[in-house]
Amino acid sequence: MTTQHEIILETKRLILRRQVIEDLDDLWALYCDPDITKYIPDAPRSREEAQEELEWHMHGHPKHPEFGLWATIHKESENFIGRCGLLPWEIDGQNEVEVAYTIAKQYWGQGLGSEAAQAILQYGFEKLNIPRLVCLIDGDNTASKKVAMKIGMTFEKEARDELGTFMIYSKQRE
Ligand SMILES: CC(C)(COP(=O)(O)OP(=O)(O)OC[C@H]1O[C@@H](n2cnc3c(N)ncnc32)[C@H](O)[C@@H]1OP(=O)(O)O)[C@@H](O)C(=O)NCCC(=O)NCCS
Q1: With a 6 A CB cut-off, is 103 part of the ligand 1 pocket?
Q2: Which amino acid residue places its CA nearest to atom 10 of ligand 1?
C-alpha cells in the first residue's frame, strides 16, 4: 500500500506536503550537511532525533495541527529537497508564527527557498488568517535574511533564547 500524501500547498516548481515516515532517509541526509545545520541551533543531531522531529510533524503541531514542517518536493525531479513550513513559538511572552525554510545545498541559488517562503507566507496570511508572521534568523545567515526580505519582511529586533541570539524579521497581514 502506498502512503497517501496530504498536500498543503503547491507553487510553480514545488509541492509542500505533510511529511511521511518514508521521508526519514532524505530528512536525515539534509541534517547531515553541516552547511544546513550551521544556523539551525535546534536541528536534530542523530537519525533518532530526526525521526522524532519527523513524527512530530507528520500530524502537525499538537496544539496547532495546521502548522508544521512540510516535505518540500521538487516537482521536476520528484526529489525531497527540504522541509519548510510554519512553526509556533513564544518569544518575549508573545505568541509568534515563524515562516521556516531549509533547502538542500545542491538546490540553492535557484530561487526555490524564496518561492517556498513566499507561498508559505501567503498561505499563513490568506488561508490561516494569521495576523503577523516572523522569520527567526542567525545574524550571520545572509541567504536567510535575503529570503525574508524578498518576501516583504523587515528587520524588527534582536532576541535571545537558551540557544543564543537571533534576529526577528516580521510582516503584518495587509
Ligand atoms: C536560506 C535558504 C533556504 C535559501 O535557499 P535558496 O533556495 O538558495 O534561496 P534563493 O535561491 O531564493 O536565494 C535567496 C537569496 O539568497 C542568496 N543566497 C543563496 N545562497 C546564499 C549563500 N550561501 N550566501 C549568500 N547568499 C545566498 C541568493 O543569491 C538570493 O539573493 P538574490 O536574489 O539577491 O540573488 C538556504 O540557504 C538554506 O536552506 N540554508 C540552510 C538552512 C537555513 O539556514 N535555513 C534558514 C534558517 S533561518
Answers
A1: yes
A2: 111
Write the single-letter amino acid at 155: F
pLDDT digits (tens, 9 = 90+) for 76-122: 999 999 999 999 999 999 999 999 999 999 999 999 999 999 999 99
Please give the C-alpha separations between residue 92 and each of 96, 122, 126, 158, 160, in angstroms, as whole numbers: 10, 25, 26, 11, 9
Q: Structural domains in the chain? A: 7-130 (3.40.630.30)
If you take atom 8 of ligand 1, which residue's CA is the nearest one? 108
Which set of grid coordinates corresponds to residue 73? Answer: 518536493
Question: What residue owns the CA closest to ligand 1's atom 41?
Answer: 36
Answer whether 11 contacts ligand 1 (Cβ < 6 A): no
Sequence letter at residue 24: L
